[in-house]
Design a protein that fits this description.
- The protein is α/β, with parallel strands linked by helices and about 700 residues long.
- The protein contains 26 helices and 18 strands.
- Among the domains are: about 160 residues, no CATH class; about 110 residues, no CATH class.
- The strands form four sheets. It has a nine-stranded mixed sheet, sandwiched between helices. Strands 12, 16, 17 and 18 form a four-stranded antiparallel sheet that branches.
Length: about 700
C-alpha cells in the first residue's frame, strides 16, 4: 500500500520552455507560404510533427521490426508492438532523412513509407474520414515544389522521447494548436493548461485516498477530448502522486483532426488505441460497459443537438437514447435543442463509478439558470440537486480561453461526497483570481497562476464560508412556482372609454377584426381557409357596426358593481343585435375594469372566482413556508391575494411547477447604496468653483 498523500495544489508540470522547438517548426511552416494560406499551414505541420514524433520514438527498435517483417510479413500486429516497444510500428526501411535522397520519387516513396505504419497510425495520418488525409497534402506540396524542403526540415527536428518527454511534447502540441486556432470560431475554443490543472487539482483534492494504492487501476474519461490535453494533464498529475498507478485514458472526439492528434499522443504514452474513439458522444457511448473514476471535459457551448443546425443523425440518436429513460444517459430530460451542454452533464454522471466517481466539467452560464420551471434544463438541474450529484460550482475569470471571453464555470460532480458535503452545494467565486498575461494570446488575456490555483483549491477543500465561498442546502435552489391571484372584483359601464377598452382587448375580434381583414385583403393569394375567414368577417361587419352603434347610443355615467347586476342590462340593450350568450359574456368582460370597490364574484357553489388578469407567479424555495412567504413578501402590498400551486404530475401531460435554478451572481451580489445628497452637493459646489476659476484664468 502506497503512503497516503495530500494533493499539492502548487505542484506543476511546468514551466516547460518549448520555444526553441515551436519556433523551429514555425519556421518550417513559412516554407509553405504562397502554396497555402496561413490558416492552412496546420494541414501540413500537424501531420508532419506526428510523423516525425513516431519516427523518433521507433528509431531504437526500427531494425528489429524491419527484420521481423522481412522474415514474416504476416507477423501479428500485437506481437510486433512488443518488438517496437509501442502500440504502433513501421516496417519500411525508409526514414525521412533517406527519403530526400531520391527527390524524383519523393512523393511516391513518402506514401509508401506512410503505408508501412501499423493500421492505427495510418488511420491517423492518411484516413480522409477520421484522420488528417495527408496524401492530399503530399500531392499538393509535390506539385508546388514544397515537398522536398518540408521533409528535409522535419528530418532534422529532434522529437526523440528520450530528449523530449511526453509532457514537453504535449506543450509543443498545445502551442502549435493555439497558434493555428487563433482564428477559429469562438465555440471551438481550446482549453489552456492553466484551466485544466485547476480542474485536475479540484478533482484530486478530496475523495481520492484510493488512488495512492499500489498498482491502482484509475480510469479517466473525456467525452469531448479534443487533442487530449485534459487526459494528458490528468495522467501526469496522477502518475506524479502515484507512479505505480495504472492510469487508463478514454476519449471520444468528433473532429477528425483533433482526434488524430489525441490518438497520436495517447499511442506515445502507451495507452490502448481502442480507448480513443472517433465518435460523436451525442450519438453513442463507446464505453458503455465501463464506469469511470474521473470524468474531465470541456464540451462545446451553444452547439445544437436538434433542429436544422444539428449535425446529421444527432437528433435521432439523442431522442432514441432518451426513450430508454434512466436505462439510458438522459433519463432526467432533454434540454432545449439549441445547446447540448446539459446532455454532456447527464452523460458524465451516467459514466461515473457509482461509489467513487468524480467529474469536473466546464460549462458556460446557460446550464445554471436557463429555461422555465417545466423546461428540460430546469428539470435536469432539479434531478441533479435531488440526487445530490453537484458538489460545487466554481466561477472562472473571463478571458481565459484563446477564442472566447465569455463567463465559464467548473461543475464539480461527485458520487463520493464526504459526509459534511451531503445535501450541500458549494459556490466559489474565483472570477477575480487570475494574473494578467504580459501579452494577450488571442482572446486569452488572463491566466490562472499556480498561486491562484492553490487559493481556489484551498477554498474548495476547506469547504467553509468566506468572501469567495458560499455553502447552501441543495433545496435552496429548488423552488415551487406558485400562481398569485386576486379575487375577481370588476365594475361594469357603457361609455366611450370602456367601449374603446373592449376593442383593445379584442372582445369582438371573433366577429370582425379590422387588422386581420386588412392583412387578408392585402395578401397576394389566399388559401381556402383564409378566403372563408375573410368572407365571414366581411359578412359580420354590419353586426359589428350595429353592436358599436347600439353601445354608444346607450352610453351613460352608470357604473355597475357586479356582473349579476350588469348582465341583464347589457342583454336588454343588445337584444336586437346579439343573441348568443358567449358573445354577450365577451362584451361584458370587455366593458369591465378592475375595481376593488366592486363585489367579489363567486361561482354557483359560492366559491370565490379569482381574476386571471391579476395573475402573477412567484418562485418560492422548496424549504420556505408558503404562508410565511405570503405574509412577508405579498400580503403587505396586496392583502387579498391568494397563492395556488397548480402542479399535476400523475396525468398523461404533466404540469410541472417544481423546478431548479442556480443564479450564481445573485449569491455574491453586494448592494451599493447611492451617495448621500449632502456629499453630491458638496462635490457639485467644488466642481462649480473649479470651473469658475478656469474661466477666470482664460481672461487674465
Amino acid at each position: 500500500m502506497a503512503q497516503k498523500q495530500t494533493i499539492d495544489a502548487m505542484w506543476d508540470d511546468s514551466p516547460i520552455d518549448v520555444s526553441t522547438e515551436v519556433n523551429f517548426i514555425w519556421s518550417i511552416a513559412n516554407k509553405l507560404r504562397g502554396t497555402y494560406q496561413s490558416d492552412k499551414y496546420k494541414d501540413v505541420i500537424i501531420p508532419m510533427v506526428i510523423i516525425r514524433r513516431f519516427e523518433c520514438a521507433l528509431g531504437p527498435t526500427k531494425d528489429k521490426v524491419v527484420a521481423q517483417f522481412k522474415a514474416n510479413p504476416n507477423y501479428p500486429a500485437k506481437a510486433m508492438y512488443r518488438i517496437s516497444g509501442f502500440q504502433f510500428y513501421n516496417t519500411s526501411e525508409f526514414t525521412l532523412a533517406e527519403l530526400i535522397n531520391d527527390a524524383d520519387h519523393l512523393a511516391a516513396n513518402f506514401k509508401a513509407y506512410l503505408q508501412s505504419f501499423s493500421p492505427n497510425v495510418q488511420e491517423i495520418i492518411v484516413s480522409a474520414e477520421k484522420g488528417l488525409d495527408f496524401y492530399k497534402q503530399i500531392d499538393k506540396m509535390d506539385k508546388n515544389n514544397r515537398l522536398l524542403s518540408v521533409v528535409k526540415a522535419f528530418s532534422e527536428l529532434d522529437l526523440n522521447p528520450r530528449t523530449i518527454d511526453n509532457v514537453k511534447m504535449g506543450y509543443i502540441f498545445e502551442d502549435l494548436i493555439r497558434r493555428f486556432s487563433e482564428n477559429a470560431e469562438a465555440g471551438d475554443h481550446y482549453t489552456g493548461r492553466d484551466i485544466i490543472k485547476l480542474m485536475v487539482n479540484i478533482l484530486l483534492a478530496e475523495g481520492c485516498d484510493d488512488i495512492f494504492d499500489d498498482g491502482k487501476v484509475i480510469t479517466v474519461l473525456d467525452q469531448a477530448c479534443g487533442t487530449g490535453g485534459m487526459l494528458s494533464t490528468g495522467y501526469n498529475f496522477i502518475k506524479r502522486y502515484n507512479p505505480t498507478a495504472d492510469v487508463r485514458l478514454f476519449g471520444q472526439e468528433v473532429n477528425p483532426e483533433s482526434y488524430a492528434i489525441c490518438l497520436a499522443e495517447m499511442l506515445i504514452k502507451g495507452q490502448n488505441a481502442e480507448n480513443i474513439c472517433y465518435q460523436d458522444t451525442m450519438k453513442k457511448d463507446r464505453f458503455a460497459g465501463t464506469k469511470m473514476r474521473f470524468v474531465i471535459e470541456n464540451p462545446p457551448f451553444g452547439t445544437p443537438w436538434g433542429g436544422k443546425d444539428a449535425a446529421e443523425g444527432v437528433e435521432d440518436a439523442v431522442r432514441e437514447e432518451y426513450k430508454k429513460g434512466f436505462d439510458g444517459r438522459w433519463g432526467a430530460g432533454l434540454p432545449g435543442s439549441g445547446d447540448m451542454q446539459m446532455l454532456f452533464l447527464q452523460s458524465a454522471i451516467d459514466k461515473l463509478d457509482d461509489n467513487f466517481g468524480r467529474a469536473a466539467i466546464i460549462e458556460n452560464s446557460s446550464p445554471l439558470f436557463t429555461g422555465g420551471t417545466s423546461s428540460g434544463e430546469s428539470q435536469i438541474r432539479r434531478w441533479m440537486l435531488e440526487k445530490d450529484f453537484i458538489e460545487a460550482v466554481i466561477a472562472l475569470p473571463n478571458d481565459l480561453f484563446y477564442n472566447t471571453g465569455i463567463s465559464t464555470y467548473i461543475w464539480v460532480l461527485s458520487k463520493n461526497k464526504r459526509p459534511e458535503r451531503k445535501g450541500k452545494i458549494q459556490l466559489i467565486n474565483a472570477a477575480e483570481m487570475f494574473h494578467k498575461l504580459r501579452r494577450g494570446l488571442g482572446n486569452k488575456k488572463n491566466e490562472i497562476s499556480p498561486e491562484d490555483r492553490a487559493k481556489i483549491t484551498k477554498a474548495y477543500a476547506d469547504f467553509a464560508e468566506s468572501d469567495i465561498s458560499k455553502i447552501y442546502n441543495n433545496t435552496d435552489f429548488i423552488y415551487r412556482e406558485y400562481t398569485i391571484m386576486q379575487p375577481l372584483q370588476r365594475s361594469y359601464a357603457i361609455n366611450e372609454e370602456r367601449i374603446q377598452g373592449m376593442l383593445d382587448k379584442g372582445s369582438l375580434s371573433s366577429i370582425y377584426d379590422e387588422a386581420k381583414v386588412a392583412e387578408l385583403e392585402s395578401a397576394s393569394e389566399l388559401k381556402g381557409k383564409e378566403q372563408r375567414k375573410l368572407e365571414t368577417m366581411l359578412e359580420n361587419y354590419p353586426t359589428y357596426l350595429s353592436i358599436l352603434y347600439t353601445l354608444r347610443a346607450s352610453s351613460s355615467e352608470q357604473v355597475y358593481k357586479s356582473l349579476v347586476e350588469f348582465l341583464p342590462v347589457l342583454k336588454d340593450i343588445l337584444s336586437d343585435v346579439v343573441k348568443d350568450k358567449k358573445t354577450i359574456d365577451k362584451i361584458a368582460g370587455g366593458l369591465s375594469a378592475m375595481d376593488k370597490r366592486a363585489e367579489v364574484q363567486r361561482d354557483k357553489k359560492g366559491n370565490i372566482i379569482y381574476d386571471k388578469d391579476t395573475k402573477d407567479t412567484e418562485k418560492i424555495k422548496l424549504c420556505d413556508d408558503i404562508e410565511e412567504y405570503m405574509k412577508r413578501e405579498v400580503l403587505p402590498y396586496t392583502p387579498d391575494a391568494e397563492a395556488f400551486f397548480e402542479e399535476k404530475v400523475d396525468v398523461k401531460n404533466p404540469v410541472l411547477k417544481t423546478g431548479a435554478e442556480i443564479i450564481f451572481t445573485r449569491q455574491f451580489y453586494i448592494p451599493s447604496f447611492p451617495e448621500p445628497s449632502s456629499e453630491i452637493e458638496k462635490e457639485f459646489r467644488s466642481l462649480s468653483t473649479n470651473i469658475a476659476d478656469m474661466i477666470s484664468d482664460l481672461y487674465k
